[in-house]
Amino acid sequence: MEWTVEQQRIVEHGEGHALVFAVAGSGKTTTLVGRVRHLINHGKVRPGRILTTTFTREAGRSLREKLAEYPECAGVETLTLHALATRIVDRARQMGLTDLVIGEEHFSQRLFGEARKQWLADLTEDDREVAARLRQMTFKPRVLGG
User: Fold this and answer.
1) Angle made by CA atoms 20, 144, 22, in degrees to the nearest 5
2) How many CB atoms lie within 10 A of CB 72?
3) How far apart are CA 136 and CA 146, in angstroms?
4) Fewest Cβ atoms nearer than 10 Å: which of 59, 123, 140, 145?
């Protein structure tokens, strides 16, 4: 594959995570597959330790299909960010860290409240202005498409 300079930098990125934002049709999926293959083929990461995420199910389907073209990528997991968040909350509930259940009535409001409470607890005395703003914030549900 012929990579652009930017794509090559992403594919061969050194240590740590690589976060990439680019416009539609710019080759993000192809570049991500190249990055995954590079990590696996250079012995840096086992396929079962790689998680790729997408914003949409359609993008996830496309990414899974492209990864499936390369046998070395067997075991790489692809999830939407929503599916990942659901797994995290479910696992936290199983571990006894929360009693939140995604989909239950007022889930978002409870999650917001718990997050705000934790954030306030972590603030220092120097963060008085932030704390004051946080205390004033309220959760306002938004209906999509309505």
Assistant:
1) 15
2) 13
3) 26
4) 145
β partners of residue 80: 54
Residue 18 CB partners (closer than 8 Å, separation 6+):
10, 35
**Burial 76-92, CB ≥16 within 10 A → b, else e:** bebbbeeeeeeeebeee
Helix (H) or strand (E) holding 93: helix 81-94
Check residue 23 and report its DSSP letter.
-
Q: How far apart are CA 110 and CA 133, in angstroms?
A: 18
pTM: 0.69
